[in-house]
Amino acid sequence: MPVKICLFLILSCCGFAVYGIQEIDSLRFNCVKNRANAVNFDDLQWMFRERGQLGNQVEIPKHLNFSIQDPSGLRSQNYSFEEDSVGNKNLLAYSNMTNDPLLVWGNTLSGEIERFRLLKDSLVKIFNPRGFRLKLLQSERGLAKQMDFFNRGRSMTALSLHNFNLAVDLGIYRRGRYLRRSNWYTHVGSLAKNLGAFWGGDFVGFPDVGHIQAFPNGAALVRKFPELTFEYIRFKEIYEQNYRIAFDREQGYLVDDTRQLISELNKNRVHKVCACSVAIPIPTGLSDEWFGQFKNASTGYVYVQQNEGWVYVKNGDSGYFYSLGVYAFGAKN
Ligand SMILES: [Zn+2]
Fold first, then answer.
1. Which domain covers residue 38, as residue numbers?
2. Are 232 and 316 members of one domain?
3. CA distances, 134 to each of 195, 200, 225, 294 (Å)
4. pLDDT in tens, 76-94
5. pTM for the full model?
6. How far is the CA of 292 from the centre of ligand 1 (A)?
């Protein structure tokens, strides 16, 4: 038997071995040092998101000031929340300056949100066992609230479909009294699934019987709307950490949604320009005057020095230098 087929049989008969391969595919992804052929202002929006707004450190600038120094000279671009909130001229900039994903992506997702609204209404109407009522409790949720839920263990994800108004929590009531547990939730789940929704009671590891959503998971949403990668990317390190912890406990099957999401995000970022994740020493020859241009605390800054291959990212009081790079699979910095 040829070695390849033999290996395939060994891998396919053992779930963990297959997970082992997938683990490598989704996590061996790096920003690799590279001067990059061309850098544009959208690349800087990503650098600000990926290096300036990590995790739940939520410093939200009112303005952004981006500069690119390349062989053709120095170009700069300014963005302000007030201006962008009117025209949505640059959704990435807009997203960098607010903590409410729905405010940014509401137009993009309007068709899905409307479809889901009709589905919720139908569900309430068709659930009619005698003496019971179904109510919609909570749909939309801001990012700050979601982070609070996540940090207190009330939610398993840093960014939820609730944040896009594509999930809803439901309550079953009997004679006006809310029932936290009831076998009727399973019935509601099957009605919702018949209508095309996805039921929280089916979640692996963390079932949530009073929850339905419009997509099976975040990965499916990002697959349909790749532009949402920008929202999910700020939590990528949290997702990776959660995935690794579960994987090390041989519980990778519990976080398969997370693995799918990480893979989807990586797929959408590969070959893109980036600021490499480890900060580097201050490049030599920068004057006090040069640093002086980054003094406004309510402005977020990204400065790319393409000739020398570095990036400066500053948000609030924290400013760091990084190597300029390009995302690639399976490589180390
Ligand atoms: Zn929910």
1. 3-107+225-329
2. yes
3. 16, 16, 31, 54
4. 999 998 876 656 679 999 9
5. 0.86
6. 46
